[in-house]
Write a structure and sequence with these properties.
The protein is built from 14 helices and 18 strands. The protein is α/β, with parallel strands linked by helices. The chain folds into two domains: 283 residues, 3-Layer(bba) Sandwich (FAD/NAD(P)-binding domain); 94 residues, D-Amino Acid Oxidase, Chain A, domain 2 (2-Layer Sandwich), CATH 3.30.9.30. The strands form four sheets. It has a seven-stranded mixed β-sheet with strand order 5-4-13-14-15-12-16, sandwiched between helices. Strand 17 and strand 18 form a beta hairpin. The radius of gyration is 21 Å and the shape is globular.
Length: 402
């Protein structure tokens, strides 16, 4: 029998992971990406133990091919440098089996893409619509003939046109009240072993060491949506230049950047969960399915989990047998049934993470001085071991349905 064909809309982390997982289950995969090529610049990404386990399940060593960095300490600080809470990564590795790693996002994306056959990737190809039918889907693009597919993976990002088309009554995105700046800087000479996030009054600054000697930096501030400074580098200096070391030294490096290398985005998440993560032969994953704030570092991690669970539930692509997925043995209804199982497996977990990330963001965005003092006291009063155990549901939460 002909191989089943999956069309993936979007070559982000979730889309590429789904393509790898499906390819390794025997599917013929076509990834349609509207950009002309993979990004060469960008920010970093943390891969938590749950995401690393998911990648290991599909035999993807892309995280390690992209390089890894394991800081000695992770935690929260005040703007004067005092630690509010921290944990050693050795303790995290002992509890969760492996520590989180941090990689440059462009290198990680490139490593994922390299795990696919070159002909699977179609850059400069925008998916404009999907006609979903019982006997198959038709994927329309801006240029070229329509593609026939047994499965469509909607990994088309936070502003997902496919989500809007199939869930027109959904309220869409919710502005969190914060804007974020993100970049990577060269600062190997600073020798900063800790991954830290510093909380101030309505402002935050994060520092993550990367494997190549660079640092992934991010900052947030409570501002109206659409607020932009004529010189974002000066804006960061104004807001964070008096904070604890090594933030001023890192801002010196930011001052040397091309302004185009400093990303600035308002932070949005999904206003409410989707009623389901599938429709017929279409499955949504990652930001398209459950856009969340970056406060837990789980956006990309949950997209990776989505992709691996989705491929696990689907039938094998290279024959007519069920292949361990849901559905009938002859494959007639196997894909729609598998996607219903995917919704059942992923919707509650991803929405719980989305809500938790929003709550953490609200804590970090507190501005009232009394509220800030109370927040910091509460965090400091929580034993470090208890704070670490509070991550169990995230880091140990990846499960493949039986």
């Amino acid at each position: 029998m002909p191989r089943r064909h999956a069309v993936v809309a979007g070559a982000g982390i979730g889309g590429l992971t789904a393509a790898i997982a499906l390819h390794r289950r025997g599917w013929h995969v076509t990834v349609c990406e509207r950009a002309p090529e993979l990004p060469a610049t960008g920010a970093g990404i943390g891969l938590a133990p749950n995401a690393l386990r998911a990648l290991d399940h599909i035999g993807a060593d892309a995280a390690y091919a992209a390089g890894s960095a394991v800081p000695t300490t992770m935690g929260l600080r005040r703007s004067d440098g005092r630690w509010l809470t921290r944990a050693g990564t050795a303790d995290m590795a002992a509890r969760y089996g492996l520590p989180p790693i941090a990689v440059p996002r462009p290198a990680f994306t490139a490593a994922l893409a390299a795990a696919l056959p070159p002909e699977a990737l179609r850059f400069g190809t925008t998916v404009t619509g999907v006609d979903d039918a019982a006997d198959g889907a038709t994927v329309r693009t801006e240029a070229g003939p329509a593609l026939s597919a047994d499965l469509v993976v909607a990994a088309d990002g936070i502003h997902s046109p496919l989500r809007r088309a199939y869930f027109p009554a959904h309220p869409g995105l919710h502005y969190t009240g914060e804007t974020a700046w993100r970049t990577m800087v060269d600062a190997a000479d600073l020798r900063i072993p800790a991954m830290s996030e510093t909380w101030g009054s309505g402002e935050r600054f994060g520092v993550t060491p990367l494997s190549d000697g660079r640092f992934y930096l991010y900052a947030t501030a409570v501002v109206p949506a659409g607020t932009r400074s004529a010189d974002p580098r000066a804006e960061l200096r104004r807001r964070f230049g008096s904070w604890h070391d090594p933030i001023p030294a890192l801002l010196d490096r930011v001052d040397r950047l091309d302004p185009a290398d400093l990303l600035c985005n308002d932070l949005y998440d999904l206003a409410a969960p989707l009623p389901r993560l599938h429709h017929g032969r279409i499955a949504w994953l990652g930001d398209a399915a459950h856009a969340m704030t970056p406060n837990l570092g789980q956006g990309g991690c949950q997209a990776i989990e989505d992709a691996v669970v989705l491929a696990h539930l689907l039938p094998a692509g290279d024959d007519g047998a069920d292949g361990g997925g849901a559905g009938d043995g002859d494959g007639t209804d196997a894909v729609p049934a598998a996607l219903a199982a995917y919704t059942a497996a992923r919707r509650a977990r991803t929405d719980a993470v989305r809500v938790r990330a929003r709550r953490v963001g609200r804590l970090g965005a507190v501005r009232n001085p009394l509220a800030v003092a109370a927040r910091d006291l509460a965090v400091r009063a929580t034993p470090d071991g208890l704070a670490l155990r509070g991550m169990d549901d995230l880091f140990n939460g990846f499960r493949l349905p039986g």
